Structures are given as C-alpha cells and as structure tokens.
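Build the 3D complex.
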Amino acid sequence: MKTEEHSPEMKIDLLRQMLRIRRFEEKAAELYSAAKIRGFLHLYIGQEAIAAGAMRALTAEDAVVSTYREHGHALARGVAAAAIMAEMYGKAEGCCHGRGGSMHLFDVSKRFYGGNAIVAGGLPLALGLALADKLAGRARVTACFFGDGAVAEGEFHETMNLAVLWKLPLLLLCENNLYAMGTAIARALSETDLCKKAESYRMPAERIDGMDALAVAVASADATAAVRAGEGPRFLELTTYRFRPHSMFDPDLYRDKAEIAEWKKRDPLPRHIGRLKEEGLLDAAKIDAIERAVADELAQAVAFADAGTLEPVESLTRDVYARTP
Amino acid sequence: MQAVQQKAPPMAQTQTMNIIQAVNDALKIQMRKDPRVLVMGEDVGKFGGVFRATQGLYQEFGPNRAIDTPLSEGGIIGTAIGMAIYGLRPVAEIQFADYIFPAFDQLVNEAAKYRYRSGGQYPCPLIVRTPYGGGIRGGHYHSQSPEAYFIHTPGLKVVCPATPYDAKGLLLAAMRQDDPVIFFEPKRMYRAAKGEVPTGDYEVPLEQAKVTREGKHVTLIAWGAMWHTVSEFAETLAKDGISAEVLDLRTLWPVDLTTILKSVEKTGRAVIVHEAPRTCGFGAELSALIHERAMLKLEAPVQRVTGFDTPFPYSLEHDYMPSVSRMRAAVDRTLNY
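Done.
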C-alpha cells in the first residue's frame, strides 16, 4: 500500500464511514421496531470495518456484488443514504422503487450490482462482470462480498475454480462472522480454514482481522492492486463478528453471551478511535463534528423516506420484461 | 399479435439447411454484426459443440468469443448473467436441457429477476441455447422437456423453434432484444428437419405463433419436435375427412394467445400436444387459458396429449412420447363429445 494512503485524512475517513454505517444501522433497528421498516432486516453492526476498509480500495469504475447484509456495503460504496432508507421503507423513491427492500439494494451509477438474498447467488455472476472486463482489456476490478455461509454452497466452488482458471480480475471478500445464521462454522464446514480452500484452487489468500479498519484497508488495497495488475483473483478472509442477532427475528440462542461480550471488546469503532487519539489525529471536538455530520445525513435520509410514496399498483408489472405487456 | 405466414424476404438467396446449420448461421451472422455477442459453454469452442451448433465460431472469432468452459452449469450461466448485466450479449449453451438444473438458481433467481429487482436498472439480455426432447434413445437425462419450469418464471422468455427457418430467424431476433431467453432446440429434429433458409439476415419475431396448416374441425397446438409429428398426423386426418388446423407456437412465453384463440374460436376444438409430463405441463396452462377465454366457443373440452408423469424412459420412449394413436383418440374425443 502506498504511504500516502496512510494519511490522517484516510484514517479519519475510515472512522467517518464506520460511523455512518453504525448510526444508520442503529436507526434502522429503531425504525424496524416502529414498523416503518418491515420484513427482514440484517444489521451490519460489528462488521463495519470491512465495508469501510475494503471499499476504499475500489475506483468508481470497479464493480461491487454484495449480500443480504449489505446496507454497509451500499453506504460505503456511495449509494445515497436517503435512497437506501427509502428502499428499506419500501418507497417508490428508494434505489429500486421499493421493490426489494433491505436485502435488495442496487445502484447502476455506482456499479453496485445488488444485495442478494440468495446466499452465494452473487458469486457466479461476479465472474461474468470480471470476465467482461478482462475480455475488453479494462483494468477494472469486481469486488464480491459474501459470508462464511456461502462457502458451503456449490456456487462458491464453481466460482473459485473458474476465477483462477480464467485468471479473472475478481476480489473475493469473505466476511467470516463465524455463523451461518444459527449454525457455527465448525458445524457447517469440514474444513474451517477458509484460506486453505482458496489455496486448493490456487488462489492467493490472506486472513485479515476484520475488526481492524486499517488492516482491512491495507490488505484490500494490496489485493486490489494485484488483481488490477492482471495477476488474477485474490481471496481475503475477513474475520469478524456481528454484534446483533442474524436478523430482527432471531432470539440469538445459539451464541454464548461470554463469546459475544468478548468480541464486543474488539469493536472496530472504539478500537479505531483509540488509535487515532493515540496518534493525536482526533479529539472530542473532532469526533463530535463527525457525529453531527453523520446525524444530519441520517436525519435527511429518514425524512426523505418518511416523505416517500408507494409505487402505484399499476406499475406492478413494469420491468418484468423490457416491454410491459 | 398476428400469425405470420412463413415466407422468405424478397430477393433472398436461400439454401437447404438443417436446424444445426440454421442455428450456426444465426450465431455467425450476429457475431459478425455485434461485437458484444459471444458464445460460451461446455465444448462450444475448439470442439464446435456436442451437436456441432457452434462449429467454426472458435476459428472465426477466437477463444474470447467462443469460450470453452468446464462442466459447471451454475458457473456458465452465472458468468453469462454477469456479462449480460454489464452490456454484453452472451449466448450460453447448456449441452442438454437435462443439465440445466444445476444452473436453475442462477436462471430463476438471478437472470429472471435482475431487471425487476434492480428497479429497471440492470437488463439481462442473456440467451441460453439448449437441446431438449426425446426420441434419440437418450434415457432419463438426455431426453427431458423442461420448458414449463421456465415458463412459470416471470422475467424469462421461452422460445422453441420447429424448423430451420424459424430456428435461424427466432435466434437472430432473440439476440437483438433485451430480456433473458431460454432457447430450446428440438434435438431429435436437429438434422432430420431440413428446409430452405435465406442465407442472409432476417428475423422471425418473438411472441408470434404461426398457423402452419389451415383447417376447420379441430386446432392442434404444438411446438418444437412435436410440431413435426402433429403436422404429419394432420395429413392422415385429412384422409379421413377431418380438417385440422395446426399451430406452431414458436415462442412459448409470452404466448401468442391471440392466434390461439382465433383458431380455437373458429374450430371449436383444441388438442395440445407436448412431450413433457402432463401434470403442470405447458398444456395445462394453455388449456386453462383457452377455457377461460373461449368457453362458449368450444364444442368440447380441450384435450392434452403429453408425456406420462414418469421419469423419461429408455426402451419405452416411443410409448412415452405422444403417438399418432393417442393423438387420434384425443381428436375423436373432441369430435364425438
């Protein structure tokens, strides 16, 4: 990673992005309880360092394929918070006209190819985005996020094989939060060392502390540079933990309270703030200023969503086909 | 939507082709015209396709536009989807329609819904070509007709040509529109069906059925390989004084209900013939549509002649597939109702 990337601005920006996600998710939980957001809601709280750190490595021309726990990815990628919030409300002003909700955010202007509620469903199509770039000789990268649950799916293994076979410009970011919904990784995978799986496909792999935003940023930048240089795909396993249950319906009976408490000690936000304070880059006033800006953006997003309208039922059949019958 | 009579455009040079040659010709024409078009699949490149439908493409267009893949159907379709939502025009081949099921998730959950779930931001103009159907002693996994699964999936178009002329024209039209298309090719007729085909460029519009034989007593509805069987059967009916009208649906979904209803309202009787198992086969949907829209014009309930509700058999395949005697019995039921 280039030294200028370690600039104070970069470190402050990591904090800003993590705070944007954390506060957004906290608000989303509140709005869910208020029945403003309905259906399924999967919060990213605890995993913010990954979206904040990894997304920095990408340019506007790169592509992002995401999962159903993707609010943080969308925010860090630059999808407007208001459009995301309105989508979660199911409003026509949302980034997909309220058709998908929380798990299905898209934004063509950001090359954001979606949240996806099919675990591992985004992996094979990420191959196609990357292959199209490779065939056209474009030095673009496709970044594909997925969780440890996806690793048990066949589509993961097809993707790993083809990505290396075709030497595609694909960055595979596995957020290993140790649970596929309620099933601990050791109860789901015969081999829990995910880097070994990648290496068995001859894909260079690295395990990174996903609770450390700076470590994620550095590793993602290095991996992205290698992918962009035409060296083929890279696999990053980002070890992390979600502080909230899988979804708002989940009573979280399968995780030990002590385990959760232990992981919360590694909360990426206080950890990053502590580092920045130590380095003299941050004081209470500066944190306040960032928090205020984040709160303003969020308040505007909520107001936008509140003021939104529902897509008229007449347009239910629009966009099923290019031409609506 | 109107039925169009099959006729070559004026001044067109024609050549006798079978369906394989017609498909190959369509691919070549469009790949020459549109650099976004590419083919991919198992053995479609160097080998030229298991049925030779992609023969010569690797030599003419190179490995980047005639892409050989491993046996990885989910990966093939997924990759093609990624390219399609990123502006390319991939034509993926699934070697036999029976092998399409490992890619079912990518087709049903990704390709079919990409435009809709992105609120119209990401069209997915993907073609999946795949040979389907029985009659070649292929047994369980080289004989199936899985069209109904895909017709049932909003967002997908399903096309199934019967003749070389339609195979070329429909494939050219499919490659020039913006929705994902499953293009079922009747493998039993790949080489058996021959016809005059314009050597140049033309399209057969999607979503238009064709009246291939006019008649007044009963409408026989078929597509793909079964259209040939049904057409021969109609000739034998004529000898018995029964005048059958024959429809070739060509595009199964969205279906050309206008042409179907026009014919059925004229004859008052309909027999639907398909190879796939009976229960929830496309014949069931067609029958429901006809009954819903033309009940009072019907002289008899719509009849279905289909495969049986069994896995596709090996030695008994000709008993499984709709036969002349079963079709005759169905026609008689409508006439004697």
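Residues 85 and 302 of chain A are 7 Å apart (CA to CA).
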